[in-house]
Amino acid sequence: MSFVKAVVQKIIGDGKHGPFVVATCDKFDTYDGSITFSLDPLVWREKHYPKEGECVFLSDITQKRAGWRAETARYWTPSDEVEKQRAKSKTNPSFLYPKAEVFPFDDTCRRIVRELEKRNWKVPGISVEFDVYGTGDAKYRLVREVLGQGFRIYFCRVQGRLSGGLNDVAAVTCLNIPQMELHVYEDHSGPTLYTYVGNSWPLDREKFMKGGKVNSKLRKEPRIYLQYTGGWKRPDEPGTQYTRQGLCAPFLIHTNDLGRQYDPMGKEPKYFVTSDIFRTFDNWLVKNVLKYILSQPIPKEIVDIFPPEKQIHFPAAFGEIFTFCDYDAYERIKKGKASLQFLRPEDRYALSGSGWRLLSFGIPNDGTVPDIAYEGFLYCGFNLIPCISEKTSIKSLDIPGHHGFFSREQYLLRIKPNRANHIYIADMGAGDTFREEILKKEPKRERYTDAEYHEFMRMIGRTIIPIDQYKFDFKKPVILVHRELSFDEVEIISGPQNEIM
User: Fold this and answer.
1) What is the C-alpha separation between 475 and 481, in angstroms, rounded?
2) Taking the domains of the chain in order of start, what are their residue ranges?
3) Is domain 3-87 in CATH 2.40.50, yes or no?
4) Strands of 321-325's sheet, edge to edge?
5) Predicted model pTM
6) What whole-number distance in Å separates Cα of residue 221 and Cα of residue 183?
7) CA 94 – CA 132 distance, rounded (Å)
8) How confident is the model over 411-430, as pLDDT tens digits?
9) What separation in angstroms does the CA of 85 have from each of 4, 24, 58, 81, 89?
10) Which tens digits make up the pLDDT trace of 353-390?
11) Three-state secondary structure call for residue 148
């Protein structure tokens, strides 16, 4: 939030620069220490001075030598409380439970999630991975994966067949049980089945469950699986294979994908009955997963594993920060700043990570930067020119590592983060020496090999740190934002820039 609710502790009437107030945050979780604000009319926007114990609205908070200071203050109002709750709900998305009733095992998977929740998501031998889906005021948290010894359940939000929109339903899309993997889809396309045909399941289990399964024969990879996909007739029946849209195929027929996958050998099946496979997966999950979870004790205390995030103050030492955006983002920001009612709930945000996979090659996870921060960054630059105005040319600005994404970004924005959470900084100059050495040996080289490119990106990735830990010692620093920026964190400076169109 860009504001805080604080409680007046005392009024100082003889301050060096006039009367001022000392206040502390309600449920102190944002600022370390008290917050002061002046009673000058330019700061305190009310007719009467506040009294001890009264709640006040504080914003434009900066860190001074003596502590935190608010540049805007007034009485706390009921509408402020509503806004505070709304902002809190945005940081703690509502939970999206599995509700799909498409496949026989959907109910079993739903019960697995519910029973894990009763046990605070902690059952020996089973790990649970969560994810957040959606944007703006339409965010949902869901269980993305349940993983255990020999099994894996992967969930995804599904597309509504009738409405054409996204339903608030998490559905199973991938199941692994020993030596079998099944992919299903809400529209009944597929399904796709993989069966293990290797020589040592204990050695191949990890690769089979988590590895890719594309063109194994063409790639000359070991023969450890066979692929089957939905069909409406058995291979020994005459006629061509066909599909029926919106209906689940009764058979799973082997496919070698135009000779790029391996064929069955000996007594290995050429097809399966789909209903039998569905029943096999459901029975195995009930017997080996659900039954085991139900055998575990339910703790007396239910723990909230998603508490409100403690806000980290954005360092005041940074100068102007800017980035670029395209026309769609510009229109969303312009409407959002005018009124949220002009926007759909999912559009009620200013900017977010682009979704491009950046710096994602082998970055060590030492707890400093979470895995999710490795991709979907929004590039921002700072202190690169003395002054930015509406006449500033985008071509005169440069953010290391950022290449304008096909020159669609015609609008210049000033970024004013209200917190440092999920904002990082990287040194794009970390790989310069590596690149110079390559060019020194081969001056006419036009591109990196894949291995060289990955090593170059690893060098940059290792420099990523939270922005509040930055010591201003990078050669080519770039700010990487991996969260949504609200409308009060973004200011439109200029655009469109015809020179790059």
Assistant:
1) 19
2) 3-87, 94-294, 321-500
3) yes
4) 465-466, 423-427, 477-481, 378-382, 321-325, 411-415, 490-494
5) 0.70
6) 22
7) 10
8) 888 898 988 988 989 888 88
9) 12, 19, 16, 6, 6
10) 754 333 333 333 444 444 433 456 787 887 654 455 66
11) strand
